User: Which sequence fits this backbone?
């Protein structure tokens, strides 16, 4: 197994999320992120509503009509060993079956080549629609066109992460995580818990992933709009507690005024909290995504910390509704539908939000 494939497998096991929709880019470059049209003004106040590019996206698909005709839907699961991804796949399966359809679910286990082969297998089976969360967008692109040529509707999850980008050719519709809204809400939470001008650190992920890059970049962007200062950006090589601890130690040692650290996944920021304790920087708190056991531990024990719990169940349900709707030719679907950016989990609501995994 190549080093690149091994890293992407670790990504699938660690992220989710979100985004699991990837291409080629690294998260650790310094400087500001792109600012797509629709962004709010500079110097946002903590109480401002979300003004970004996802604000006006539709939040549901048309209700599909159960036709009674045989409908086969394929699910090319990216990594069903990841609890959130498994939740989405299971909800998609249930929704299709409730509509009277048949499901073929294939699990790539985080392997991009295996996902591509399984997608081609579903095309060869002549299913009516395929749901897929692409591990590597560019690798899947030709297969999406093959599916379109065969009359198969392709519904993606979280691809592209940046909803201002076009869908890949051959894709009918995408269900988005809402990465920009989630980034805004994390940054807004930071602004409400830190003084204006406070320094924060940003940990990205040095493995090809447009979605992770976009999510991290947008968190940094919105933090700056709320008047916070990015003291340092750095990469981790894998999404683990140990990697977060190593990166967090270096970041906190070089930046004595950092008060909070943000990243894409709770495992990384959990490691940062370990580093902060060891360095006697106990005032440092963290914000990330997933709300797994690491996120729960951070939010429940460290004032100020937050985690975004992605709406995995809605991601699966929406994708299934779109697949059935398109697979039975019931009309035109919206280009992108959003699940709303997940739920921001804080000390105020963590007991009422289900932990993932």
Assistant:
């Amino acid at each position: 197994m190549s080093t690149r494939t091994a890293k992407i497998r670790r990504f699938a096991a660690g992220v989710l999320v979100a985004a699991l929709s990837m291409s080629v880019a690294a998260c650790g470059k310094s400087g500001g992120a792109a600012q797509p049209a629709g962004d709010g003004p500079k110097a946002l106040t903590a109480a401002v509503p979300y003004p970004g590019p996802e604000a006006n996206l539709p939040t549901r698909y048309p209700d599909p009509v159960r036709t009674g005709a045989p409908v086969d839907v394929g699910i090319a699961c990216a990594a069903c060993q990841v609890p959130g991804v498994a939740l989405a796949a299971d909800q998609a399966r249930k929704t299709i079956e409730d509509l009277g359809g048949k499901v073929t679910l294939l699990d790539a286990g985080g392997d991009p080549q295996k996902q591509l082969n399984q997608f081609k297998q579903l095309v060869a089976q002549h299913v009516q629609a395929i749901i897929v969360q692409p591990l590597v967008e560019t690798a899947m692109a030709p297969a999406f066109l093959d599916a379109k040529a065969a009359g198969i509707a392709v519904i993606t999850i979280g691809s592209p992460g940046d909803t201002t980008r076009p869908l890949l050719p051959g894709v009918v519709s995408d269900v988005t995580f809402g990465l920009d809204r989630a980034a805004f809400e994390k940054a807004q939470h930071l602004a409400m818990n830190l003084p204006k001008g406070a320094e924060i650190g940003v940990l990205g992920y040095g493995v090809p992933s447009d979605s992770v890059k976009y999510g991290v970049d947008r968190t940094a962007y919105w933090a700056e709009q709320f008047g916070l200062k990015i003291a340092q950006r750095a990469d981790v090589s894998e999404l683990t507690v140990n990697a977060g601890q190593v990166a967090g130690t270096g970041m906190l040692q070089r930046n004595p005024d950092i008060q909070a650290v943000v990243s894409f996944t709770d495992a990384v920021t959990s490691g940062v909290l370990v580093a902060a304790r060891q360095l006697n920087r106990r005032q440092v708190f963290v914000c990330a995504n997933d709300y797994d056991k690491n996120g729960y531990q951070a939010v429940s024990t460290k004032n100020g910390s937050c985690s975004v719990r992605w709406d995995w169940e809605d991601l699966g349900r929406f994708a299934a509704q779109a697949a059935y709707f398109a697979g039975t030719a019931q009309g035109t679907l919206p280009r992108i539908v959003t699940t709303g950016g997940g739920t921001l989990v804080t000390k105020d609501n963590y007991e009422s939000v289900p932990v993932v995994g």
